[in-house]
Amino acid sequence: MSIISTILDYNKVFVDENKYEEFQTTKYPDKKIVILTCMDTRLLELLPKAMGLRNGDAKIIKNAGAIVSHPFGSIMRSILVAIYELKAEEICVIGHHGCGMVGLQSSSILEAAKQNGISEVQIDTLTNAGINLSEWLTGFQCVEESVTNSVHLINNHPLMPKNIAIHGMVIHPETGKLDVVVDGYHDVDSSNTEIFSM
């Protein structure tokens, strides 16, 4: 039996037995926070539990490494939608120790792509179109630096309001311990101080 068949069989029972009722909420995050985190499987349930979050408390965006790699990409768009349309008031970027993006080199991904039938011609087509595959497919060396860089990019986005606290944290994927890398309240307080001193 395929994994999708197993999921669909489970889903039928889930719906028929009204198990969804305990998860019912609105589209607005009750705790008014949007979280960008990594897609690592260890964080699926651990991260919300470690933060005391329940269904409906937060908007959670996931990608490889919890990285905002482009100021006008889909991650940044999702964050702005959460702020302006879904009433989120704080942002938290949460990376994790032991992330697969640490030390990731584009060469290993491109080699795996070739082994899976992607031709050198296809790769060259992307390169010739101006896509820097080396930069796009390369990870980072330090999770704390990566989180700080993403917080900085969000904080300096031209569409980001200055009254939004943008935090950076790193979670331990075994224990759930959170370490603060960037205290977003500090930045909001200092920007408010500058506004009031004008």
UniProtKB/TrEMBL annotation:
| Protein name (Swiss-Prot/TrEMBL) | carbonic anhydrase
Cofactor, free-text remark = Binds 1 zinc ion per subunit.
| Presence of the UniProt keyword Zinc in the record | yes
Q: Which reaction does it catalyse?
A: hydrogencarbonate + H(+) = CO2 + H2O
Signal sequence, renumbered to the chain:
none
Q: Which Pfam families match?
A: Pro_CA (PF00484)
Q: Name one GO molecular function term.
A: zinc ion binding
Residues that bind Zn(2+): 38, 40, 96, 99
Give the highest taxon in the source lineage. Bacteria
**What EC number(s) is this enzyme filed under?**
4.2.1.1
Which keywords annotate this record? Answer: Metal-binding, Zinc
Q: Which CDD domains match?
A: beta_CA_cladeD
